């Protein structure tokens, strides 16, 4: 056998995603109406390109030398987190990473051992399971509440065993767009604390927050880092900048953590980032962080897109979860077969993502990063397919 067991498991767990990639080649057609992935459909934000342009000209001989976590980037992130979350983050709590992928990978390296179980939400991001398999970890699904896709603390508690080391939560949530309130985090903190005492082993929480700054209707945001000290936060700038190809993110340690544990995590980040393959952002992206902290996609325009798509499809008879955050719209496929539904639309040049990628074969996801013109042209086709919704 050529591949390792963990490589085979990782490959197989993401096979549905890679197959979907291969199946939507028609989405590359200039006339295709593509709502699959959260990719940009318009030119990059001026603030992004200006920040990078400003930092491009070298100011010292080591401008493009090896970089770990740059102090100015750490300070900018810590300052932003203090403002957003009201928690006393310090620059040393921040490890700069290659997007949220890099931050999650670092968190797994810091906290888990081979064979550990990691509880993940269902439906949830389709890369959790393959990332876990690649590290010889065991993903254990915890269903969200079926009625409204809220976080079900009881389901998480039921999923915990003596082998559980980590629980991953995601808010605002991909694919559902739900934003969970502080009361949910307080309840989860109580459940995790009780389970940790019962099993004699601390269960950690990873709060996956790449959409934290993309919320609608004035909805506030609370991080579980303020409710449960044993929390790490991963973040990606690729969402709010709508530039996923520019890999920039971080892993942050909750400042509520006991000082000795906090210090141990701080000291371990840099050597582990080296060990997992130099998991630091490029120099240019790190230099740009202070300027990028205030750059964002147009949330008012994104709200208009959400309202246009949601309103039209709801009126057509679709069952939808109105997103409170992210740039996705989550709905139930007519007839309950998302693959057939999305396949029929693809034949007409409209590309949606079937919920099978999220272990939800009756649902579909629409990315709202498409232009308003694309939305207006696609809506008649999607509305016509509503029979049985």
TrEMBL record:
Keyword Zinc tagged: no
Aminotransferase class I/classII large domain location: 60-379
EC number(s) from the headed UniProt entry: 2.6.1.-
Gene Ontology terms for molecular function: pyridoxal phosphate binding; transaminase activity
InterPro entries noted in UniProt: Aminotransferase_I/II_large, NHTrfase_class1_PyrdxlP-BS, PyrdxlP-dep_Trfase, PyrdxlP-dep_Trfase_major
Pfam families, per the entry: Aminotran_1_2
Entry superkingdom: Bacteria
Cofactors: pyridoxal 5'-phosphate
Swiss-Prot/TrEMBL keywords: Aminotransferase, Transferase
EC class (word): transferase
Protein family per UniProt: Belongs to the class-I pyridoxal-phosphate-dependent aminotransferase family.
Protein's name according to its UniProt entry: Aminotransferase
């Amino acid at each position: 056998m050529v591949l390792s067991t963990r490589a085979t498991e990782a490959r197989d767990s993401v096979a549905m995603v890679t197959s979907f990639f291969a199946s939507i080649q028609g989405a590359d057609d200039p006339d295709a109406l593509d709502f699959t992935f959260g990719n940009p459909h318009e030119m990059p934000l001026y603030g992004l390109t200006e920040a990078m342009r400003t930092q491009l000209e070298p100011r010292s001989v080591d401008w493009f030398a090896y970089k770990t976590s740059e102090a100015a980037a750490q300070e900018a992130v810590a300052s932003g987190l203090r403002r957003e979350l009201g928690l006393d983050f310090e620059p040393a709590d921040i490890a700069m990473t290659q997007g949220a992928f890099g931050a999650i990978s670092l968190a797994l390296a810091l906290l888990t051992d081979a064979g550990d179980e990691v509880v993940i939400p269902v439906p949830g991001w389709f890369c959790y399971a393959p990332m876990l398999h690649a590290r010889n970890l065991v993903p254990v699904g915890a269903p969200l509440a079926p009625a409204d896709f809220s976080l079900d603390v009881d389901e998480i508690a039921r999923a915990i065993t003596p082998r559980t080391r980590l629980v991953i939560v995601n808010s605002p949530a991909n694919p559902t767009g739900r934003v969970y309130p502080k009361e949910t985090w307080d309840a989860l903190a109580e459940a995790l604390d009780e389970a940790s005492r019962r099993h004699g082993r601390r269960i950690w929480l990873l709060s996956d927050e790449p959409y934290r700054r993309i919320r609608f209707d004035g909805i506030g945001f609370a991080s579980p880092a303020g409710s449960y000290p044993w929390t790490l936060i991963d973040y990606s700038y690729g969402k709010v900048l709508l530039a996923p190809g520019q890999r920039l993110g971080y892993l942050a340690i909750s400042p509520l953590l006991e000082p000795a544990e906090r210090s141990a995590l701080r000291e371990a980040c840099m050597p582990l980032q080296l060990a997992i393959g130099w998991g630091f952002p490029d120099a240019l992206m790190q230099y740009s962080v202070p300027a990028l902290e205030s750059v964002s996609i147009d949330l008012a325009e994104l709200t208009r897109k959400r309202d246009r798509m949601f309103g039209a499809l709801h009126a057509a008879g679709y069952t939808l979860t109105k997103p409170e955050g992210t740039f996705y719209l989550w709905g139930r496929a007519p007839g309950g077969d998302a693959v057939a539904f999305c396949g029929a639309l693809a034949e007409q040049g409209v590309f949606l993502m079937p919920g099978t990628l999220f272990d939800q074969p009756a649902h579909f996801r629409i990315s709202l990063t498409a232009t308003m013109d694309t939305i207006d042209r696609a809506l008649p086709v999607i509305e016509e397919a509503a029979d049985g919704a």
